[in-house]
Amino acid sequence: MYEKLILSAALLLASYAANAQVYPTKPVTLIVPFAAGGPSDAHMRQFGAALGRQLKQSIVIENVGGGAGNIGPARVARATPDGYTILQHNLGFATAPALYKNLEYNPNTDFDYIGTLVFDPSLMMARSDLPGSNFRETIAYIKANQDKITIGTSGPSHLSALLFMEATGSMLTTVPYKGGGPAMNDLVAKHIDLLSNSASIVGPLIKAGKVRAIGVTGKQRVTNLPEVPTLDEQGLTGFEMVVWTSIFAPKNLPAPVRDRLVAALQGTLTDPDLVAHFNRTGGQIATHEQATPAALQALVRSEVDKWGRILRNAGVQPE
């Protein structure tokens, strides 16, 4: 019996090795845990084309929305670790443990980390007529009137709101929304005072004067609005809320398959079409050092700790 088990294991390993040498021989499915049409979907359509050019194989984008972005990763965690099912996820991957009691996956143990593709900072914005002719005056007005100031929250913008209140020492009234679109509409209509939203979609509204930019939430200015300073450089030292987009796979990929995926991800970082896409949207494409399994693992651990602390301090209880 023992000899049969050894033989079976050897055959399985040989099969994995043989598959790894020619990987991929069929289309690769990229699970996007969000509905079609949003920023993640748009990024992944572009990335999928670039990844396909690197792997010389078709990349099938499958949107698995719902469950606050938790259904997709649970499915990938259960998938066969052969490289034919991979996952895109973002900052929500690291905040999920603090927000949900009964996750069907563990971000730290159920995945092989491939690497980070892009960092997508947000813009903290104000309604167009909020008092304050510069950053200092605006922050002073917000702090002096904090009991009257409203800030929209939806997904990552909720994190920006919590960090903004912590950084400015203010307690504002949060207004929850089901999506960034309705929140943006209300900011334009002056129904709320503040909102953080992706730099990739707010540029035209800022340039048209429909809303006023307060600052970029990342540590670097964005390519589509280079004139807008970061919150960090204007005085909220250390302020950083960036929605990173990274690639994961089921745990225990054969090493050659994992290495092939890492190399392919790294190859996309200089793909002209993908670079042009992120330059248009303000996304900050990852460096080769950031697009590694080790760097992604360190990023996830850091973000789990950071946002877990902020959410607990804000009194947010896991559902």
Please describe what this structure looks like.
With 319 residues, this protein is an alpha/beta fold. It has eleven helices and ten strands. The chain has two domains: 165 residues, D-Maltodextrin-Binding Protein, domain 2 (3-Layer(aba) Sandwich), CATH 3.40.190.150; 96 residues, 3-Layer(aba) Sandwich (D-Maltodextrin-Binding Protein, domain 2), CATH 3.40.190.10. The strands form two sheets. Strands 1, 2, 3, 4, 7, 8, 9 and 10 form an eight-stranded mixed beta sheet that branches. Helix 2 packs antiparallel against helix 10. The longest helix is centred in the first third of the chain and has 21 residues. It is globular.
Could you write a compact summary of the structure shown?
This protein is of the alpha/beta class and 319 residues long. It has helices at residues 2-22, 39-55, 71-77, 92-99, 135-144, 156-168, 180-188, 199-207, 255-268, 272-281, 293-313, and strands at 28-32, 59-63, 85-89, 111-127, 150-153, 173-176, 194-198, 211-216, 242-250, 284-285. It has two domains: 28-120 and 242-313, D-Maltodextrin-Binding Protein, domain 2; 121-216, Periplasmic binding protein-like II (D-Maltodextrin-Binding Protein, domain 2, 3-Layer(aba) Sandwich).
